[in-house]
Amino acid sequence: MSQSFNYRHLFYFWVVAKEGGIARAAERLDMAVQTISAQVRALTDGYGGDLDPSSDPTRDRIVFSSTRSGHRNLWLANADGSDPRPLTSGGANDHHPAFSPDGRQVAFVSDRGGRWGIWLINAEGGAPRLLAPATVFDSLTWSPALSRIVFAT
Would you state the pLDDT for residue 6? Predict the structure, then answer.
């Protein structure tokens, strides 16, 4: 099935990720919160179930979770939406990616190996590794010194 992709939706998605929320993105873009929300919803509803965007603090790219491949995996794309490519694969449920402050790693929540936990993967790809087992997550944030990952439940 062929779908039309609107890069404007991805741009709003990226601004929300970069600004840390819809309200701040709306303020930056001088638009109504409802407008930004509708644009992001149009992207995630209309193209592959894309969720959980995180912007790379060192490069013009984003990582997000998506069902484009049939499973909830992580994908990388340039900030303008070009060159989307899978970062993870397989039948695991990968959610809530967060770039490290140096842009070299991505922490994420997954049920890989049959147990939920915080996982790490090199931002250029490779084998994910379990950092810590845990049960419920809402979001992940790196410390500026790269020494800790904070998560909310």
Answer: 63
* Of 66, 75, 110, residue with least CA distance to 92: 110
Nearest to 106 by CA among 84, 80, 133, 87: 87
Identify residue 81 by its one-letter amino acid code.
Answer: G
Structure tokens at 39: 């644009």
pLDDT at 137: 64
Which residues have C-beta within 8 Å of that of residue 37, sequence separation ≥ 6? 22
Q: 7-19 and 33-46 helices cross at what angle (nearest 10)? A: 120
pLDDT score for 153: 59
**Could you report the per-residue pLDDT of 13-65, keeping only the tens digit for each?**
788 888 877 778 888 888 887 777 767 666 655 555 777 888 888 888 889 99
